[in-house]
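Supplementary Methods S3. Input chains for the assembly prediction are listed below.
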Amino acid sequence: MWWVFIIIKPKPENSHLVKEISALDQDGKRISTYSIIEKPLSIYLNDSHIVTAMTVGDYPKYLAVGYLINQSIIKELDKIEDIEVVKEINTVVVRTKEKSLYEINKKNQIKTSGCANGTIFNNVIEEIQKITLNSSITISAAQIYSLYKVISLTPSLYLKSGAIHGCVLCYEDKTLAYFEDVGRHNAIDKLAGYMFLNKIKPEDKFLYTTGRLTSEMVIKTVMMKIPILASRSGYTAWGVELAKTSNLTMLGRLRGRKFTLLSGYERLSLSD
Amino acid sequence: MWWVFIIIKPKPENSHLVKEISALDQDGKRISTYSIIEKPLSIYLNDSHIVTAMTVGDYPKYLAVGYLINQSIIKELDKIEDIEVVKEINTVVVRTKEKSLYEINKKNQIKTSGCANGTIFNNVIEEIQKITLNSSITISAAQIYSLYKVISLTPSLYLKSGAIHGCVLCYEDKTLAYFEDVGRHNAIDKLAGYMFLNKIKPEDKFLYTTGRLTSEMVIKTVMMKIPILASRSGYTAWGVELAKTSNLTMLGRLRGRKFTLLSGYERLSLSD
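Predicted structure tokens for the full assembly:
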């Protein structure tokens, strides 16, 4: 392997991400509990406001770049001139050498609301329909169970405070990068930015998410060209359909030693 | 009680909401599984496109009206002239007698991304800071456990397919309306539309949600003037802060006979 992995782990001890609060339990006893911090982060591309995301606030550069590449607004690393985080106003500005097509033509934008979808653009849906993932890597059920166990036992914001989603990039039996955020789409966007800026190739990777496998999560995974996606949660009909169209191997309801294989069956060696 | 409740229940048997799909289990055995259907719904106010939500698609009128009132774009029932669902193009058009402030001044809009937040507007944040919930109703832990049990056992899309959130409006020991959607904010918006169009008063009600208690869920509950909100999930720091500011009674991590009481302690009689 010619590149060095930057291992990213959750940071449950970071007081900028979790806040201790006072509450009562069901018997009226005063207790101390942890709550996750959410705050707005505005993402600008040059002088255009692209989106304001509610995020825990770590890795703002990865989040901004990942969002822009997953929306297909930025496509090449060398087009990025500078990424500036202006902490005081919760803003990231990504500057490029030339204007993107997005800035030139804002007409193809659709706003979507919320949990099932953040914001997607018509052009992304068109684009992923042209993508067929053709990586021939395989993974065994035993490897998946082992990764699931490692991920579940890793100290995380989830284990400390709950109310947060995680996305973990894996290679063979190793977890390479574990991002968390209040929105599952933010966690995956941070991972996309991390992979893009560190030139990590996707074809031989496995992606685990705690979030549901909605159309949005599938679209992002396909945009990132990762061939295998697994979640401990459920799936939507459109998510499954898009996974099939793009030949993404997708597993839902992964818990312990059980899962449901929804698409891309050939990358799973079930005999192990 | 002078008004008649329209009891709304989940519809797990509705084939427009869930789709049966073929998959493999962890041993490679072919199985049949259910996936929730998500599709875009565009909400228009007169000739302005307000938002495109990803939704299961039931109760489009309630969703559209609930979204508009929770964003404080529409405030009075008699201002609504007509609500038209145009199924062929997944669109709802809400028509009003006169233009809203939103249409006159679009400048105060911020777009937010995703799971933690759908789309909120600056004016809503300003507005809820002026609201103090002063209902003096109380609820006992025993009542909460009993409602939780009833809700958990009600046949639902959640029990059938997973990957969906629920919002349940309760009065004393009764569940009055149970809405489900892929986004928790859609489920609560449908409830808001239902209450608004049926003139159901909020001051003596209890709201249960399966979703996390983020700032967005608290903002909507306060906008709807429901004094007690409970969730089986966790909470964010900003969600708790907003609940305290508005004197909303809020409970998180409700499971079985356990919960964490986060704010508005006086509405809970813990001695029962």
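Chain B touches chain A through 68 residues (CB under 8 Å). The domain at 39-127 of chain B is CATH 3.10.20.10 (Ubiquitin-like (UB roll)).
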